[in-house]
Batch of 2 targets.
Target 1
Amino acid sequence: MKKRKTIFAWIWKIVFKIVLFLFCFTIVQVLALKFINPPFTPNVAWEWAESIIKKQPEKRPKYNFKKIEAISPHLRRAVIAAEDQRFLSHNGFDFNEIKNALKNLIKKKKLRGASTISMQTARSVFLLSSRSLFRKMAEIYYTILIELFWDKHRIFEMYLNTVDWGTHVTGAEAASQKYFSKSAQHLTPDQAALMTAILPNPHRWSVRRPTPYLKTRQKQIMKDMHLMPLL
């Protein structure tokens, strides 16, 4: 009995040390990225390594971090209009959207997204793409941290530069270069709205071949974006 207690005490001690280390590591990680622009994201690193291993240079990810001031104000407004209109008023979690998503699930048996810009940023900057409970919990944890240590300006800048914008395309600059052969700084309102329209599903929808649904989304975003604040 005494030996069993000793083993349990040793296990809990190890677990506590691991948890403490991870907590300290993530705090340092988030604080560092408050001031340092990430040279890559976990997904970019994974895709880069994969392209080297498989010897497929054409599949190397495109990623180019730009200061928010070097990204078109049209795109900045369009993203807030389409992705998270209450971005400036919530603390990382939009409980109105979560409630609506649950109602939609109950009534239509269909799950709709309720992720905020903060949640998507936490996911893009710190985590690999996957669908698991652990990843969702990690996303919530990192969302709390970035809301605590970063301001909204920094969160939004990180989002614009790290969000998945299509196959092997990460961030606004890479997306703008791919879809319109121009810097994100020079996007027009209609280009910004169309580029934003694909964000819910950038691997299924195409800027180059917009469906009638995408064109409708583009028009709605253009109506809403003029009412959005400029970050």
Target 2
Amino acid sequence: MSGLSVANKTYLEALLGMSTGYVLDFSNASFANFFRELSIDIYDAERYPGFGDSKANRVRALWKNGSDGEVASSLYALGEYLEAKKATAELADITDEQITRVHNIARSLGGSQAKDAETPLAGGTQASFTTEATVAANKIRIEIHEDIYNHIDQYLINGDYFHAVEESYKLVREKLREKTGSEKATDAFAASNQAKIFGHASRNPVEKDFYDGVKYLNMSIQFLRNEKAHTPATPLESNLALHYISLASLAYDLITRYVSDELITEVEGIISAKRRNLSAAAFYRVFEGGRWLESINLPKELKSSSVRRVLKEKWLTEADFTRSYDHSNVMLMRLEVVAEELTKADLDGLIERPTVDSYGNDQEAGMLPFMEYMREKHPDKISTKVEGWIGDKLKELAQH
């Protein structure tokens, strides 16, 4: 079952004209083919039961019974379809704001359409993700790495594509310098630096080929930037600029996946020390609303979404709420540090985890203030399931 909220369903039904039983201007054939290209058999009544056979009802069945990933990919594609129809004036009343909202709803589901299948590297932790990408017909929609986008967004808003490209390439080279001491790709990817970038030296020909591929990609960034750095700033065609930026995003993604054991130990030590220095009563006072975060200094590396995502995956895997109150507190403190990277599915999974220890004692501690913090700071990540859970917990407290 997807986490699509009632409010978002209501908005989408109106936008897609579903009250009539239709969906936009799709015929039966084009409707089935649209979802088939997304590897979704929209007329599979066993996979997506209920509602009926009209196009609108088939979409409702997908929203109810499909996974977050399936619903997210279909909404991304529908957004692209709306954009194409708007450009050809076939749906001239569609606005850019409406298209953006459809994409934002898809993104809020946390369904990833591009998962990386690599195993973790020894001697550290590596991200098991890539930035999201979806395909609709011959159009690819790529999510630019958050660090890259945050660095160049003002250039993009102002249409200054020359400097958007220049700055995206500069950020890649700065990251290489930060990791290896050199921003020059030929030096940064020397054998002695492989562990700094990838976690360990290449162990076989396949890994060597991959390491070399990442090196040559970064060399391309270096040479392309050199060409722009030594020529006057000139208008750059937006389509070409976006291709350049996506290249920078990929290069940045591939060199920021590895997080060292030293950094992980440092962050976890800071969090554990904070918990040890507080009594139970004091802890819950500062934990409420995330106030404890204001009193600690975390390493600057946590500004990178790549690092936060690595830590999120590690800490979600390790989160155990059956050991003790204090341990549960620490687990939730860790997750507040990476709250930006949590998804609806992550939060849904947390409230389903066991909390009773082997002696029959409930060790759930801090989950309610954690979820209230998420609802306050990141309301788009709260599903109807979690909202209901919060309501039930508050009722239980009121009765005692």
